[in-house]
Design the sequence.
């Protein structure tokens, strides 16, 4: 089975998720600069989620670069990832409306944690189909960034009950780590 | 006529349908855990519909895998399927808001029943164009899963007036049956 | 310049337009059958617009089938068509909420009229680039259906002020005429 | 890395942005012609933003025409452009609701200015990867239109506090300048 439609479908879902988050930026009643101020936390959480979804899209792009075939299990592993990503707009706007409260900050981490787990499962399903010796398998290797993300999310969730800003710092840190592009697959593709 | 644009258009519509259902998860006013509790039925019905739309997308993908050409009749059979799928977000959120009432549970089944019928019509239009002896025709065969879905929906609709939870159980059962991937077309494609 | 991205972009816009019209089907407060009754006009106008957008997508698909190259003028003629199509959800829901009033029924016709004109301009831009003797030009010929649509819309707009149901009848009639698939381009492509 | 998915993803995001702006055209309560009048500024700002997004999509299409490979830096430069474009619906509807006030008109210019800057950065990232002597680099040349846009936006932002209609005039002027299609890349592609 070709991977084209799975890529197109995932692109569509991520493009829509990124865009509907913008709908949460409700247009203020008044036309003053100060009327924009209450939107700042919503804008900040939008930027964080825009970057996170951008990272997922980018990594998804890299991941499937090294893949030739997909099967039913991979299609569902991909759907499962899209499910967790689809909850990001909800948690983003809850967090944006209550920036200094514990539960929204913690729930945001829970959704990111499950999305990271779903991405890991998708990677495993792809490796299972393409072989332990494929470019993909050797490129992913020990997946340092993946494990550090999961660790940071696991720290950020309870930390929200101390102070949600610790969680935000950890979420931002994970995003920054991923923004440094993942050259492993690119390098190995070139090397072959 | 090539099938590429029909696939791309269907992917777009299903991606949007899956994503706008998330908009029904209205962000709670308060930032407490208990404020999330009333959202549980909406979340459950979202998950059910996410899986159902995922199944349709997966099957659509498999179905068109074995197809080379499309014509005007197939384009409209596909549009007709998309029409019934497009009503899923509406019935999903009605059901999510009234989880213990008969009518929303019954209407959900009616929409799924017509979607299943539309999928059957699309299959017939594809077989008509590709020939009774095509890979597609022999792969579909008696379409056991298709008929079992239609039977279960026909049972679930009246059952909602006894107890909507019987209907939910039947809807979930149909989803589980389909989640076991449809290897018929894959096998026959390989066999040739 | 290749036509691929113009097709993909148009598919995306039409897929979204079709789907956001569903958001106008506001979920009723109560879970009774009678609570669905006020939605019937909205559902009917949704079906009409779903079919109309489906016809445009289908015809667009056929039209570009016979085209090899696109240029800047064609891209903008296409954008112009998408602009008028993008107003369909607005007029659809205004009409659905006031089914027995003149203005919404008339405005629906105005938008359809301009969309039909924009489609005609796109056809002319395509013929201009592909040559008067191209498959496209000979296939379109006198464009009987296109002119009949424009005539019927011109009748339906003033008729709304007599009785909006005359307009609805004319809109439905145009849709039915188009649902009979446009085999002209298909035939000529095969003939060559 | 192939450019296909980056194009598809950008097409998806721009298609959704263009379409969700239509949701701001809230359907009037009453079914009279005069009930449409308050929507005129919203419609005008919708048209302006539709054209602006159309220009970005068109230019993006032209820009990537001359490009063969993309890398991680280009993917993020593209994401950055999409981020600024994603704020257009918000500023469009704020401006549409307060057409004679300074701040919304100024903010609209700020978002357009950053989008123009992001487009410039994307161009530089593409030239950096494809070489200073590539078709792309020689086609872009001094980028007269790009600099005139940035200059006009820089004038329009403070001018909004004199009179927002000066800003609107400047925004419209920039759009008109771009509507004259950018034949530089097309010509150079043909010349080679």
Sequence:
């Amino acid at each position: 089975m070709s991977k084209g439609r799975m890529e197109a479908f995932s692109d569509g879902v991520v493009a829509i998720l990124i865009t509907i988050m913008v709908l949460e930026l409700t247009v203020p009643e008044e036309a003053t600069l100060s009327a924009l101020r209450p939107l700042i936390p919503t804008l900040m959480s939008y930027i964080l989620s825009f970057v996170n979804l951008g990272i997922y899209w980018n990594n998804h792009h890299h991941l499937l670069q090294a893949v030739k075939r997909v099967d039913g299990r991979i299609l569902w592993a991909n759907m499962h990832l899209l499910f967790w990503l689809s909850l990001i707009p909800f948690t983003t706007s809850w967090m944006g409306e209550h920036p200094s409260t514990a539960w929204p900050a913690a729930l945001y981490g829970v959704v990111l944690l499950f999305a990271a787990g779903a991405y890991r499962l998708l990677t495993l399903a792809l490796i299972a189909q393409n072989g332990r010796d494929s470019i993909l398998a050797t490129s992913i290797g020990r997946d340092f960034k993946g494990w550090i993300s999961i660790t940071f999310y696991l720290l950020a969730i309870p930390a929200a009950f101390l102070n949600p800003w610790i969680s935000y710092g950890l979420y931002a840190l994970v995003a920054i780590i991923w923004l440094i592009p993942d050259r492993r697959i690119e390098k190995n593709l070139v090397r072959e």
